[in-house]
Amino acid sequence: MHSSGKIFFAFGTCVLFALIAYTSSCRREPVYIGYEDPTPIDTTGNPVDTTPVVVTHPCSPDSVYFEQDILPILTSNCAMSGCHDVLSHEEGVILDNYTNTRNTGKINLSNPSNSKLYRVLNQSGGDRMPPSPRTALPADQRALILKWIQQGAQNLTCDSACDTTNVTFSTSVMPLITLKCKGCHSGTSPSGNVSLTNYTQVKASVTNGTLLGSILHQTGYSAMPQPVANGPLPDCDIRKIQIWVAAGSPDN
Ligand code: HEC
Fold first, then answer.
1. Would you say 173 and 183 are in contact if contact means Cβ atoms under 8 Å apart?
2. What is the Cα–Cα distance from 74 to 238, expressed in whole angstroms?
3. CA dist 212 to 163, 174, 194, 196, Å?
4. What percent of the chain is modeled with pLDDT above 70?
5. 64 CB within 6 A, ligand 1
6. With the C-alpha atoms ordered 205, 208, 212, 218, is the resulting torsion angle positive or negative?
7. How far apart are CA 185 and CA 189, in angstroms?
8. pLDDT tens digit sequence for 89-117
9. Angle at CA 145, nearest 5°, toward 144 and 151?
10. Are 230 and 80 in contact (CB under 8 A)?
């Protein structure tokens, strides 16, 4: 008993020393095993949406997607009251959604450039759409409509990841305003007397609070974009505008 107690004591002391030695001298830098955080912390003070975007069907740069690429052009230039919304249906043409556009847009798949929907965009004088005082569609939007018809005027969909890195006025904000707002907010009599065709005009709407107020559907502002029935801007567009505004809405 006596000797086994000694052994036990000696053993215990060893373990104790080993433990002290380990905890004091073997403290190492923590090694991070795993993957990097895909959503880095936003230092601009904006709420960052950390919902992971599952991109199962990525967008192809070669394909034209009706909801993303074509419908915003039609709703902001054609499908308004007095023109080609359901109620007005001028000449029976309704351009407020895929089915109506497909059924009433006089699309000619065998001769795409001869489709009425495309031809009227290029006509001169009183036959051009959208009619004066609205401005003609920019060439790139006309080309996109033609490309959509050439690809079969389909209702393709895809999941686009929201890239909010390097948000700038010229690459992120103005393109979306051109696509989704400018049809109504340009020309000699812009809707609501609000022009959004260049930096100075967009900046003025930021400064007076109406840009964010209207796209966030805040009370006291007219909800944008119209028609309101089509819903607010996609979250990704709103986030880009918010990030740009939070950065001081620079002309970059
Ligand atoms: C289909 C036409 C149409 C489209 C598209 C449209 N707007 Fe408007 N917008 C209007 C009309 C009409 C008014 C005046 C509304 C009113 O007085 O109720 C208006 C008013 C506004 C105002 C002033 C709001 C206020 O409360 O004073 C802002 C800012 C604005 N729009 C921004 C936008 C932005 C940004 C977009 C694109 C995301 C957009 N609009 C898309 C028709 C449109």
1. no
2. 20
3. 20, 15, 14, 13
4. 78
5. no
6. negative
7. 8
8. 888 999 999 999 999 999 999 999 999 99
9. 85
10. no
Residue located via tokens 């003070």: 45
CA distance 162 to 233: 13
Query: 104 with 93: CB under 8 angstroms?
Result: yes
Single-letter amino acid, residue 230: N
φ and ψ of 241, to 5 deg: -65, -40
**Counting atoms of ligand 1 from 1, which one is nearest the CA of 180?**
37
Query: From the CA of 170, how far away is ligand 1's center (Å)?
Result: 20
Calculate how far, in angstroms, residue 214's C-alpha sits from the geometric centre of ligand 1.
7
Cα-to-chain-centroid distance, residue 61: 15
Measured between alpha carbons, how far is 139 from 134 in angstroms, rounded to an integer? 15
Render pLDDT for 211-224 as a digit per residue (tens, 0 to 9): 999 999 999 999 99
Alpha carbon distance 22, 186 (integer Å): 73
Q: Which residue has the tokens 């991070």?
A: 32
* Residue listed under structure tokens 């051009």: 128
Q: Which of 141, 191, 245 to mutate to test the pocket of ligand 1 (most atoms within 8 A of CB)?
A: 191
Q: Residue 123 has which token pair?
A: 């006509």
Alpha carbons 120 and 73: distance in angstroms, whole number:
14
Residues contacting residue 171 through CB under 8 Å, at least 6 positions apart: none
* Cα dihedral 42, 176, 79, 213 sign: positive
